[in-house]
Amino acid sequence: MECVLAWLVLAALSAVLVVVVVGLVMRPMRMLLTVNSYLSPVALFYVRAFVIVMALAGLAGTLGNTAPCAEQAAGKNFMQWVWWVAEGLRPVSWAVSGFLLVYALLLTILYGVLGRYHDK
What we know:
- By secondary structure, this protein is mostly helical.
- Helix content is 80%, strand content 0%.
- It has one domain (2-65, 77-113).
- The chain has helices at residues 2-35, 43-63, 70-74, 78-113.
């Protein structure tokens, strides 16, 4: 039972991490995308793509971890479970931060190419 509970806690913390990052980034990104009239029509697409890929990155990081089997779980105390959950958040954090870095690089290149079209 502890295995399932620990995996559910890991999944919930991963979802919270993704929701916090998306919540912090989505509004400024939407404002940035609507500044340029050439990007305004596709701003909704970029925001939706960002949310979908961030959710998939968090899900992939969570599903990559398997709960310890019953034999391994028998000897664990509370702090060992806490460290297992913290260790399980590492792939999620790497996936989220890696995608955030690639997305920022993509938007930087896009604005570098369209930089001469500042009309607002």
